[in-house]
From TrEMBL:
Protein name according to UniProt: SPNS lysolipid transporter 2, sphingosine-1-phosphate
Topology of the protein relative to the lipid bilayer: Multi-pass membrane protein
Organism expressing this protein natively: Acanthochromis polyacanthus
Entry's Gene Ontology cellular component terms: endomembrane system; membrane
Keywords, ordered alphabetically: Lipid transport, Membrane, Transmembrane, Transmembrane helix, Transport
Length: 515
């Protein structure tokens, strides 16, 4: 027998059961009491609703929301050529869309990280997802004379999506523990490449089906509103640290300034954050420009004509989206397996595997620009291998953060890592690549060949940044063991076992972009 918060009996419960209230609190099972009265019909419905709010259902809903978060982010990239023709803007102008989005995302991340450590998380999540859904829907009705307003709308969407990426993993972390938490967080973050790839596919498919690219921005908002409602009704608000039996034993929370000083002295955290910025730089630029680059390559090869119609061919966006889905999944899985095997040889396996994968990725990404002029198939092969190696470090980077940062400081660490990786990475890379491409085109006579080459030369900056990121991971390896030992011996870890579990927590907030 269970008791609801208003004092009525809920049928179908045993005396040892507990019931979650709609606020997320727990009501312990009680013995029969003559003062209790049977639940009214409305209260029975509420009780049935509470029984549906299981941790597994909550993790599934949050993962669904994560898919939508990234799907909406890359829907614009799936119809980028149509947007450029509609608003009649240059490469740098179209690159500004992603830059403004990421800038607002990274500025909002520390704010939501602070709020997420102190206030009701599911309310913040729901408000954020409702906000970006409504803004995205309204942006599809902006006329061609107001491109600045369309750019502004992407900035507002970035604020809404930042709330979700910063907070939702912490709820899963408090609902599960040990292997269960590892599995659920794995599912949650595997939704990132899936959602990113689906964004390209959705944008291209909706445009073709409706005959108008604006409809690409009208599908994900409807799904987003549905996800927001599901979060409000079916996702509980667990006590922070409850899954680790720390709920009542976490020591007094330190101030934000104290946390930031400690993180600044954590060398593994600093270098891994800089490496994450390098990954973000490359993925942000590639996610925005590669479909357009391949479209120009086909014009040069004379296997396709330059787009002069209202609706442009979106085959490259759909193929690139499919590749992204597959490479994201493969990269995360291969990275986890490789690290587990390498840990048997060295305790520095995590940063070393990241460094090797980054350096290998740079080689294949360079080859893209060598073979694209002659073979689109060859370019896709290089993209597949390069992306897989680049995505391989996602889960591992998350483990590095979990190892070297104490539990009571992780939300702040994730938020600030998200801020720095976007600030130094994909906040400026799409615009910078477009700016370089425009400058090269103005230096020479404009032609289809030179428009293709200028964008390729601009994108060649990415492999060099990736190599730099590999160097930062090597630097992380030098200090990894010392910083991990300090975190394990910290007083707040008296009741918390880190071990070697591969918690893939927080890795996309700090990645505003997949490729």
């Amino acid at each position: 027998m269970c008791v609801e918060s208003d004092g009525c009996e809920i049928e179908g419960c045993s005396s040892s059961d507990e019931v979650r209230t709609l606020s997320g609190s727990m009501s312990p099972g009680l013995k029969s009491n003559p003062d209790l009265h049977p639940c009214k019909p409305g209260q029975k419905f509420r009780a049935a609703l509470l029984r549906c709010r299981s941790p597994a259902a909550a993790a599934g809903i949050l993962s669904f929301g994560n898919v939508l978060n990234y799907m909406d982010r890359y829907t614009v990239a799936g119809v980028l050529l149509d947007i450029q023709r509609h608003y009649e803007v240059t490469d740098s102008g179209i690159g500004l869309l992603q830059t403004v989005f990421i800038c607002s995302f990274m500025v909002a991340a520390p704010i939501f990280g602070y709020l997420g450590d102190r206030f009701n998380r599911k309310v913040i999540l729901s408000c954020g997802i409702f906000f970006w859904s409504i803004v995205t829907l309204l942006s599809s009705f902006i006329s061609k004379e107001y491109y600045w307003l369309f750019v502004l709308s992407r900035g507002l969407v970035g604020i809404g999506e930042s709330s979700y990426s910063s907070i939702s993993p912490t709820i899963i972390g408090d609902l599960f523990t040990n292997n269960s938490r590892t599995m659920m967080l794995s599912v949650f973050y595997l939704a990132i490449p899936l959602g990113s790839g689906l964004g390209y596919i959705l944008g291209a498919s909706a445009k073709v089906a409706a005959g108008d690219w604006h409809w690409a921005l009208r599908v994900s908002p409807l799904l987003g509103i549905t996800a927001g409602a599901l979060i409000l009704f079916f996702v509980p608000e667990p006590k922070r640290g409850s899954a680790d039996q720390m709920g009542g034993r976490i020591k007094t929370r330190t101030s934000w300034v104290c946390d930031m000083k400690a993180l600044a002295k954590n060398r593994s955290y600093v270098f891994s954050s800089l490496a994450s910025a390098a990954v973000s730089f490359a993925t942000g630029a590639f996610g925005m420009w590669i479909p357009l680059y391949l479209a120009r390559a086909q014009v040069v090869q004379k296997t396709a004509e330059a787009c002069t119609k209202e609706i442009c061919n979106s085959t490259d966006s759909m193929i690139f989206g499919a590749i992204t889905c597959v490479t994201g999944l493969l990269g995360v899985l291969i990275g986890a397996v490789t690290t587990r095997l390498c840990r048997q040889k060295t305790e520095r396996a995590d940063p070393l595997v990241c460094a090797v994968s980054m350096l290998g990725s740079a080689i294949f990404i360079c080859l893209i620009f060598v073979v694209a002029k002659k073979s689109i198939v060859g370019a896709y092969v290089c993209i597949f291998i390069g992306e897989t190696l680049l995505f391989l470090n996602w889960a591992i980077t998350a483990d590095i953060l979990m190892f070297v940062v104490i539990p009571t400081r992780r939300a702040t660490a994730v938020a600030f890592q998200s801020f720095t990786s976007h600030l130094l990475g994909d906040a400026g890379s799409p615009y910078l690549i477009g700016l370089i491409s425009d400058a090269l085109q103005q230096s020479y006579a404009t032609s289809a060949l030179w428009r293709f080459l200028s964008l390729g030369y601009a994108l060649m900056l990415c492999p060099f940044i990736i190599v730099l990121g590999g160097m930062f991971f090597l630097a992380t390896a030098l200090f990894f063991l010392d910083d991990r030992e300090k975190a394990e011996k910290h007083p707040s870890n008296d009741f918390f076992y880190l071990g070697n579990m591969s918690i893939w927590c927080f890795l996309y907030a700090k990645r505003g972009t997949k490729i």
